[in-house]
Structure formats: C-alpha cells, structure tokens
C-alpha cells in the first residue's frame, strides 16, 4: 500500500474511531477541569456528572455510528459484536459513576468502605473505559496488547487509589500477577508471530501460517497468548489477584472490575480463538487440541471459585470468588467452539452486567443500612424485615447468579450448556462431557453460598438494639432497577439475543 493510500485509510478510519477518540479527549478535558475547579464547592458532583455525560455519549455514539469494517491499517475492526460490547462497558461505567455520586457523603465511615474516592478516580475510569473500547475492536496482536495494558495500568491505580494499607496490598498483588500474565501473553504472541510472520489475526498469511503448524504447537501458543485475557476474566490460573483486589477496591471500582474487563476480554478471547485453525468448529480431532485446555480451565475456574466461596464470611470476598466461578461459566460457551456457543457466551456476559452490578450495589446498601464498619455476612442478620425491598432484590440476584428460574441466569446457563452438549455430541470429547456434568453440578453447589446472605437477612434475628441508617433513595432506585432486567430477560430473552448474532 502506497503512502497516500495509507494516509487516506487513516483519515477514513477516524469516523469509526469517533467514540474512542471522544473518550481520549474527555479524559484530557477532565484532568483540566479538575485543575480549574479546585476551589469549587461542588467539584465532585461536577466531575461525576461530566464523566457520566462523557461515557454516556461515547456509548450512544458507538451504537448510532454506521461505520463498520477495518480501521487504521487493520489494527482495529468495528462490527456489531464490538458495538454491543462497547455498550456493555459504557452501561457499566455509567452505573458505577452514578452509584458513587448517589452514595458519597462527607461523613462517610472512614474505617469501612473508602466511599469517598479521590477525585482522580473519574479520569482513571474514563481512561480504563477507553482501553476497554479499544479491546473490543482489536484484531491485531499489537493493538490487543496495548489496549490490555492500558486497562491493566488503570486497574492497578484504581485498586490502590485510596490511602489504606489494604488498598496498597491489593494493588501490589494485582500488579505482580498482571505483570506475570502480560509476560506470558507476550511470549505466546511472539510464537504466533514467528509461525505466521504477521500480527494481524484476520490476515490470510496468519491463517496459512497456522495451518502449516502441528495442532499441539498451535494450542500451546494459543493458550499462552490467552494468558492476558484470562487475567482480565479472572480465570484460572490467573485468578489469584481477584479476592484481594476486590476486597481492597471501593465498591464502585470492584463492581466495574467484575463486569467491564470480563466483557471486553471475552470478546478478544473469542476473536483469538476463531483465528486459530485448531478452533474450527468442524475441525474434528484438531479442534479437540484447543478445546481440551479451554475446557480444563473453565472447569477449574468453576470448581475453585465455588469451593473457595463456600468458606467466606465477608460478603465482598464472597462476590470476588463468585466472579472467579462466573468466569468459568463464561468460558463454557467459548469451549463449544460454535456460533451457538459464542452467542451464548455473549448473552451470558450481557446479562451478567445486571446481575453483578446489582449484587455489589445491594450488598453495599444493606451494609450501609446497619451503620457498621464491615461487610461481614453476619451483620446482615434480621435486615429482611427492615429493608424488605433491598432484601428481596438481593435474593433475586443471588438466584440469578446460581442459575435458577425465573431469572435470566437460568436462561444464560441453559444456552451455554446446550451449546456445549451439542459440541460434545459432534466431537465426542470426554472433557466436554466432564465440563457439562460437573459444571451443572457446581451451579447447584453454588446455591449453598449464594443463599448465605439471604438466609441471614430473613432467618437470622437482628441483634438487640440494632437501628437502621437511612439510605440515599437514588442509589436504592438504581440498585433495584438493575434487578428488573434480570426478571424481564427471563421472559423475553430475544430482546437481547437479537443483538448478539455471531
């Protein structure tokens, strides 16, 4: 391609890059706004509303943009899947920004939840959202790596942003494990580049180079490359940072970590998997080479997350181990290596947005209503009678995370495991049957810990003399509003499914 053609391509690409470019401009503008409004009495509210407007506009722009195709010399690719995942990320960012705005108070409990986040968190969240937008469009190994690193750096900073010792420890563990996963991912990418001579996953040279390699070699290089994506998904074996980082981060940050990086990482993972010839749905024995390690990782995540969550006494750490198990369930659809499996995985990610955000927000609000300094599950005793709306909403969310009707969690798991079983019948891979059987069994086992908090709410007596603290009504409406789609999408899943045709 001549230099003039390259320049024309770069200029034409700006149309599809508009939402990401807007986020970059908004990030810089937010830094300037923070400096020029240092003495303003409503500075936090101004920054929060500006951030909400910036992210909301980026999400709307992405949905309304008619541009589809490759951008910037095939570094990025905009399709309906990328747009859908950008919308998921934008909704998650707007929700956590609004929740923080509704709940922050000058007299926030200092020893419990660092609700009064430093003002820098707004610009960092915008930068992380920008990185996630780039991840959803990345189809080149270079752009994949750079976007993941942007997201990771912002994640480390957001985790350690408060001045507590727990935040520093959580941020350090997050950084160390992130560095290891990054190094492994780079090694896998170097192997793929050495085999194909190109970084472009969609190039014909990449497919030709992969087709000439032994299936085991392709599987090893592919799994190593997926290390960084498994890290973002909180998938085994790169999950160890999750409980400490979630526990250290404030509730809005932890809620965002539980949804947005998972969604973007899942899309990139599916793009990488479909680019490898060993992932061809009808690849016969060759497909099993990649399916088997993915099935093992998914099963390990489900088992480790669920078994670890059974022993938790803190609500936030329980949700952190739940996120590890849910990452395993997200991978079930990917393991199927079929269009139906990919659509099921995307549907699971979209519905998990509502379930996860609602669980973090409701747990936090119920803890705030006690006026205590902890998120211990025992402190929720007797709140069912005092906070009936929040308690019933949390019960619905916990049933959804378990995968029981009448919630969309049941539909999401049904679609994923149905696609997995169809693939097993076609390939006869025993690991798929093991994942199918043990995965469904673990969905039932998870009820034992998901029901812990509702059990304390409704069946444990409240301590004598316990008084409840009034809660900000906008935050309550937001948290309860997130539960509505959990029920509606069970009745009308096609409202969401039609967005995610693979």
Q: Could you explain the architecture of this structure?
A:
With 502 residues, the chain is mainly α. The protein is 74% helix and 1% strand. It has helices at 3-13, 18-36, 43-64, 80-103, 120-137, 141-159, 165-196, 204-211, 215-225, 227-233, 242-248, 251-275, 285-309, 315-335, 339-370, 383-386, 388-402, 408-427, 430-445, 447-450, 452-459, 473-481, 483-491, 494-497, and strands at residues 69-71, 76-78. Strands 1-2 form a two-stranded antiparallel sheet. Strand 1 (69-71) and strand 2 (76-78) form a beta hairpin.
By DSSP, the count of extended strands is 2
- The value of Rg in angstroms is 22 Å
The shape is globular
Distance between the termini: 31 Å
Helix content: over 70%
- % residues in beta strands: under 5%
- How many separate helices? 24
Lateral strand order in the biggest sheet:
1-2
Q: Average pLDDT across residues?
A: 88
Mind sketching the topology for me?
Blueprint: H1 3-13, H2 18-36, H3 43-64, E1 69-71, E2 76-78, H4 80-103, H5 120-137, H6 141-159, H7 165-196, H8 204-211, H9 215-225, H10 227-233, H11 242-248, H12 251-275, H13 285-309, H14 315-335, H15 339-370, H16 383-386, H17 388-402, H18 408-427, H19 430-445, H20 447-450, H21 452-459, H22 473-481, H23 483-491, H24 494-497
Antiparallel strand pairs: 1-2
In short:
With 502 residues, this protein is an all-alpha fold. Helix content is 74%, strand content 1%.
């Amino acid at each position: 391609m001549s230099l003039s053609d390259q320049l024309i391509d770069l200029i034409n690409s700006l149309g599809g890059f508009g939402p990401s470019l807007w986020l970059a401009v908004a990030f810089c503008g937010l830094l300037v706004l923070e400096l020029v409004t240092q003495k303003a009495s409503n500075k936090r509210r101004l920054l929060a509303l500006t951030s909400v407007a910036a992210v909301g506009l980026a999400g709307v722009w992405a949905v309304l943009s008619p541009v589809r195709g490759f951008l910037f010399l095939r570094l990025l690719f905009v399709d309906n899947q990328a747009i859908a995942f950008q919308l998921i990320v934008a909704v998650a960012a707007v929700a956590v920004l609004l929740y923080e705005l509704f709940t922050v108070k000058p007299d926030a409990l200092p020893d419990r939840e660092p609700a009064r986040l430093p003002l820098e968190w707004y610009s960092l969240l915008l930068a992380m959202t920008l990185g996630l937008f780039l991840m959803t469009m990345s189809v080149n190994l270079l752009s994949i790596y750079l976007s993941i690193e942007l997201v990771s750096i912002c994640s480390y900073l957001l985790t350690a942003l408060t001045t507590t010792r727990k935040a520093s420890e959580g941020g350090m563990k997050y950084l160390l494990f992130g560095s290891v996963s990054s190094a492994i991912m780079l090694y896998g990418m170097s192997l793929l580049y050495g085999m194909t001579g190109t970084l472009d996953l969609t190039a014909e040279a990449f497919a030709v180079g992969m087709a000439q390699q032994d299936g085991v070699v392709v599987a090893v290089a592919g799994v190593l490359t997926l290390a960084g994506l498994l890290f973002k998904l909180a998938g085994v074996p790169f999950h160890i940072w999750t409980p400490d980082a979630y526990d250290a981060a404030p509730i809005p940050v932890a809620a965002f970590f539980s949804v947005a990086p998972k969604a973007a990482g899942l899309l990139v993972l599916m793009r990488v998997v479909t680019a490898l010839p060993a992932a061809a749905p009808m690849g016969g024995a060759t497909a099993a080479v990649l399916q088997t390690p993915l099935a093992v990782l998914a099963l390990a995540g489900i088992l480790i997350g669920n078994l670890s969550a059974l022993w938790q006494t803190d609500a936030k750490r329980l949700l952190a181990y739940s996120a590890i198990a849910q990452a395993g369930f997200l991978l079930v659809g990917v393991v199927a290596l079929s269009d139906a499996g990919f659509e099921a995985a995307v549907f699971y990610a979209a519905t998990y947005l509502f379930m996860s955000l609602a669980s973090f927000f409701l747990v936090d609000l119920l803890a705030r209503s006690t006026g205590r300094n902890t998120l211990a599950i025992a402190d929720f005793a007797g709140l069912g009678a005092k906070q009936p709306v929040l308690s019933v909403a949390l019960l619905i969310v916990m049933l959804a995370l378990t995968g029981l009707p009448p919630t969309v969690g049941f539909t999401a798991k049904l679609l994923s495991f149905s696609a997995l079983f169809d693939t097993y019948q076609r390939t006869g891979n025993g690991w798929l049957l093991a994942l199918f059987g043990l995965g469904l069994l673990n969905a039932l086992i998870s009820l034992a810990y998901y029901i812990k908090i509702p059990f304390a709410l409704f069946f444990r007596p409240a301590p004598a003399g316990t008084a409840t603290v009034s809660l900000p009504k906008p935050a309550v409406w937001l948290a309860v509003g997130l539960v509505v789609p959990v029920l509606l999408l069970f009745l009308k899943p096609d409202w969401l499914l039609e967005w995610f045709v693979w």
